[in-house]
């Protein structure tokens, strides 16, 4: 029975990996069947047609290697996607280099599989002229690479919208800065030289120490989920998790992503409330329900929302200090 408290993303998350793997398997299978059908029709028009098993081996080996390369393309796209817009040339250059590597690996692995298939039936697959064929293969591979990258990018963008991407709200204008920008009004100085000379010299006043810098701490976050926008309070965050170039905000059983590193983001939060407990985790001290000690000095934190967060031995002292 479907849990009405869970949104679409939370219901999709348990089967997400199966859907993603199944999607690429289906796509490659459909494309292999289509290309094989076209190749068979074309072979029938040739004066010396190729055997059906050869065409099956050619198309099957090509798409099998393409399927195996999908995780690598996902990793490259994830690595290059955080680049700022001003680094567009670096982004394109990175994908250009990756497309060459992609094509070389595809051709070499494809030829190796074909050689094994031919050897299994007592034939020899001739790939002596693979250097001359690689230019032709690259023209096809670069189109396949571009379409796969676009599909991965579009899917990732959709998942961000489905999950909900958070951002820090702009802080209000600092009143102190506004006052500093106002011109200072001073009493008019006497213009009479004699009167000015008769005035006693102003006593030396020691300048007060400079106030400590004020750290702007976000109190609320704006979350966009599909076409909806709503606010969450910083104090409602139960715990945080580093997820590459994002920080996962776990709030009342929901997960949101914020584009930042965990280290940088923690500098914006109140250190008396949020404490790092692991290389990739931080918690709201007020949301810890129980601390379960583990072997080796580590611990497992049981949160009020029912989740558990790892706590490494390195951060146990900081946890005790913050909790005290």
What would your notes on this structure say?
It is a single chain. This protein has 324 residues and is an alpha+beta fold. The chain folds into 2 domains: 8-163, no CATH class; 220-323, Beta Barrel (OB fold (Dihydrolipoamide Acetyltransferase, E2P)). The protein contains 9 helices and 11 strands. It has helices spanning 8-12, 16-44, 52-80, 88-120, 130-163, 175-181, 193-198, 262-266, 316-323, and strands spanning 165-168, 220-225, 228-233, 237-243, 246-251, 254-259, 274-278, 281-284, 288-293, 299-303, 308-311. The strands form 2 sheets. An 8-stranded mixed beta sheet has the order 3-2-1-6-5-4-8-7. The chain has a 3-stranded antiparallel beta sheet with strand order 9-10-11, with no helix packed on it. A hairpin with a 5-residue loop joins strand 9 (288-293) and strand 10. The chain is elongated, with a radius of gyration of 31 Å. The two termini are 43 Å apart. Residues 171-187 have low confidence and may be disordered.
């Amino acid at each position: 029975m479907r849990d009405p408290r869970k949104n679409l993303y939370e219901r999709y998350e348990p089967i997400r990996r199966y859907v993603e793997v199944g999607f690429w398997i289906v796509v490659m299978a459909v494309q292999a069947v289509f290309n094989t059908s076209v190749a068979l029709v074309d072979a029938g028009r040739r004066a010396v047609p190729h055997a059906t098993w050869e065409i099956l081996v050619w198309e099957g080996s090509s798409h099998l290697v393409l399927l195996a390369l999908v995780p690598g393309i996902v990793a490259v796209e994830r690595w290059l996607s955080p680049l700022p817009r001003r680094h567009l040339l670096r982004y394109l250059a990175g994908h250009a280099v990756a497309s060459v590597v992609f094509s070389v690996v595809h051709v070499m692995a494809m030829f190796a599989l074909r050689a094994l298939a031919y050897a299994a039936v007592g034939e020899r697959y001739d790939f002596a002229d693979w250097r001359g064929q690689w230019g032709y293969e690259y023209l096809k591979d670069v189109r396949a690479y571009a379409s796969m990258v676009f599909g991965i990018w579009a899917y990732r963008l959709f998942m961000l919208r489905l999950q909900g991407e958070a951002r820090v709200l702009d802080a209000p204008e600092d009143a102190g800065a506004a006052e500093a920008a106002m011109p200072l009004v001073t009493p008019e100085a006497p213009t009479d030289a004699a009167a000015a000379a008769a005035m006693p010299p102003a006593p030396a006043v020691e300048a007060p120490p400079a106030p400590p810098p004020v750290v702007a701490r976000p109190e609320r976050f704006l979350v966009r989920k599909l076409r909806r926008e709503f606010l969450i309070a910083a104090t409602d965050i139960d715990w945080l998790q580093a997820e590459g170039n994002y920080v996962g905000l776990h709030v009342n059983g929901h997960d949101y992503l914020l584009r930042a590193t965990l280290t940088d983001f923690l500098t914006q939060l109140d250190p008396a409330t949020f404490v790092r407990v692991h290389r990739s985790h931080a918690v709201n001290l007020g949301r810890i329900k129980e601390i379960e000690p583990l072997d080796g000095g580590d611990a497992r934190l049981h949160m009020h929302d029912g989740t558990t967060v790892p706590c490494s031995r390195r951060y146990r002292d900081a946890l005790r200090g913050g909790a005290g």
